[in-house]
Design goal:
By secondary structure, the protein is of the alpha+beta class. The protein has a single domain (about 5-40, about 70-135), classed as 2-Layer Sandwich (Alpha-Beta Plaits). It has helices at about 10-15, 20-30, 45-50, 60-65, 80-90, 105, 120-130; strands at about 5-10, 35, 75-80, 115-120. A 4-stranded antiparallel beta sheet has the order 2-3-1-4. It starts with a strand and ends in a 9-residue tail after the last helix. The structure holds adenosine-3',5'-cyclic-monophosphate. Adenosine-3',5'-cyclic-monophosphate binds near residues 111 and 114.
């Protein structure tokens, strides 16, 4: 059964442009509740660890540099069918291919600087949530 939690990150491009509030409002309009949130500036090593699954891909260096270029805002989100719903709401990786009204269509510049991350499976949502949050950070219920 699809899970009720997913991990998102408002990336340094969108956070630095002051779009965090608008993006969170859009996510809340789609029924998501914030269970945990923080703002932090990842080191290159931390960004590389988070995206370790992409190590060796041609864009990995660019991805690590971008994700460690400024503050970002990870959030643990809750709603029914959380992973699939959030991926629909954020839109395609490349904003040129993202549907109207999606976060990336509205706020992303390019495939690399694409405003927001979302977990791609329930398993990765758990792993990614544990990367940023411990039990004490997460609102119960
Ligand atoms: P995200 O959903 O955070 O997951 C992996 C990230 O790698 C993806 O968003 C993009 O930001 C980035 N990415 C994927 N493909 C490319 C690419 N071809 N060039 C640059 N960055 C990419």
């Amino acid at each position: 059964m699809a899970g009720r939690h997913t991990l998102t990150i408002i990336k340094p491009d969108a956070f630095g442009a002051g779009k965090a509030g608008l993006i969170l409002a859009l996510l809340e309009q789609h029924g998501f509740t914030v269970k945990a949130a923080r703002v932090l500036h990842l080191s290159a090593a931390q960004a590389g660890a988070f995206y370790a699954v992409h190590a060796g891909r041609g864009f990995f260096g660019e991805l690590v540099e971008f994700m460690s270029s400024g503050p970002c805002m990870p959030m643990l989100l809750e709603r029914d069918d959380a992973v699939a719903t959030l991926r629909t709401v954020i839109g395609a990786t490349d904003p040129a291919e993202a549907a109207e009204g999606t976060v990336r269509k509205l706020y992303a510049e390019s495939k690399g600087r694409n405003a927001i991350h979302a977990s791609d499976s329930d398993e990765n949502a758990q792993i990614e949530a544990a990367f940023f949050f411990s039990g004490v950070d997460t609102v119960r219920g």
